[in-house]
Structure formats: C-alpha cells, structure tokens
Amino acid sequence: MDLKEIQALIKFVSTAGVDEVEINRKDFKLVIKKNAIQVTSVAPVAMPQPIALPAAQPAAAVAAAPASPAAAPAAKADNLITIKSPMVGTFYRSSNPDTPAFVNVGDEVKSGKVVCIIEAMKLFNEIESEVSGRIVKVLVENATPVEYDQPLFLVEPA
Question: pTM of whole model > 0.70?
Fold first, then answer.
C-alpha cells in the first residue's frame, strides 16, 4: 500500500460516516480512527480547570492576609510556622459541607492531625500537620483552588 492509497483512506474516513477503518495485510496493519467524539468530550473538561477564575481569589486572599499580621506585633509573627499545600487542587476545611471544619483558629494541633482535604483529580487527599501547636490563621477560603506550596495555615509552635 502506498502513500496515495493511505491518504485516500484518510479522506474517506473524514468525509464518510465511518468512524474507523482497519486493513490487515501480511507485512503490515493499518488502523485509521476518527476521534471527533473524544475530542469534544475532553476539551470541556480540560479547559475549565486551568482557566478557572476563582484561582485569582486565593491569591487575593493571600495578598490580603499579610496586611492583618502586619498590624499584629512583628516579634510574634517571626515564630509562626506555615503549613503549605503539598499539591495543586481544591482546598476543603471539612470532609463534607455538613460536618465541622477539621481545625479552626485557636485549635491545638499535633503532628499527624488532619487539618484539611485537598481534592485533586477527583481524589480527596487528607493533609496532616507536620508540627504541633495552635492554629493562628487560616489563609485560604473553603472550596477554593490552591497551588503547590501555597500557605494554608499559620501555626504557633507548642
């Protein structure tokens, strides 16, 4: 089979109502598939995630957050430890909307305690504290996107 015959088959598949053509010969196998359905189903799923406008809101919340601690004594802010996001995803303070948040400002946490959930690609990942202390500030709003290494909580070590 030469190049012109292959091109003719491709043109036939694209213009006819055929989705797939398969040719088997002794020395080769040729499969031509028309994937128009897959492309349309993938595009809507892939596009909203990177273009999601709420991504700007956490940045605004994080930008606004340093303004409040600036009003607090600077010496106190020096000893705070930041719990950061280990992945990109959506930040949730509780396991579902009807249950209370894992932690609130003023709560004591120990190393290994779940402080939030980050959902990435339909998987819900429990984020555990790596330090013991008291939650001083929650830096991210519930159900908003977070980036890798984005600060989530400020903890005053115990």
Answer: no
